Amino acid sequence: MIYLKRCNTPKCNTSLTVGMLHATGLLLVFLLVLCLSQAQPLQAEETPDIGIVIHGGAGTIVKGKMTPQKEAAYKAKLNEALDTGYAILKKGGTSLDAVEAAIRIMEDSPLFNAGKGAVFTGEGKNELDASLMEGKTLNAGAVAGVQHIKNPISLARLVMEQSPHVMLSREGAESFAQKMGVPLVKTDYFYTKSRWEGLQKAIKKEKDEEQQNTKIKEKTALINLAVNREQEKFGTVGAAALDKHGNLAAGTSTGGMTNKKYGRIGDSPVIGAGTYADNLTCAVSCTGHGEYFIRSVVAYDVSALMKYGKLSLAEAADLVVNKKLVRLGGGGGLIAIDNKGNITMPFNTPGMYRGFIDKTGNRVVKIYND
After folding, report:
1. pLDDT at position 45
2. Residue in 84, 94, 121, 236 annotated catalytic
3. Which of 55, 71, 202, 360 sits most deeply, having the most CB atoms within 10 A of its CB?
């Protein structure tokens, strides 16, 4: 047994007081370190996730009809578009910048029906449409029927940010482009052999039907102009993204439909039909029979079902694409990302060029309905 002798001298009392203060100080330091160590993970959890999803068109895209070389080319370009957009998000850039950059990659490729690879109208011209929307302010811009703009998605952004309007078309849009310092390109920039051959096949089929006195309503004829495996897809490109600031954005760009008539404009430049973004819900870009997407207001419908119907992103998109559109007879698909970074890519056709990099960094690139 150990006995401690109590000391009541002033010296002992002073030493005891100093020791208690020292111990108290160490305890406070320990508690402060503990609080800081626990606070850091909470701060990380509050940082919004980032993600990007893209598409290059939907339709009759069948594995047996595509060579391994062409399949590899499509996947390589989809990956390039994803890498370009995701790099911007990773560095803290905006979803608008990421969407525009990703779409420009696809517009510059002859593989997709947008920009360089745009299909021909019945008059042998290339007429391009595009739109862009940001979810924070619901601000949007679009262009339709332009013929000398290399990257319509960038002009759509200028319309959104530098004009009081939402949509500009044809000569008016190109006059605005010149005012903004956007260089115009010659129409032969958009010429590709495969697209020109596709137009000739469409024209021949149309003439054959006339010679056979086939009674086809004009509206039906315009919608069903896909005549071979190159045209049996609804060529459109699009992207949707969520940045670290929690802001959503979506964009869509297209060359329209092969052999289209009378200055036809589809859903791609129509806000709510082909493109929509709202920070409260999601960002959407569509591809398919434009007439059906306009009538169904597809992109907005997904957002509305989430906002008012309280459906999840996947539930809303599936309902619109695989039930509402199918009921009308519309073919196509969409890509979307919500404000939590969830991604969906539903389509009701045999294939859709698509891919994403999600909030975990996981990458997926696909073509067929697999």
Report:
1. 42
2. 236
3. 55
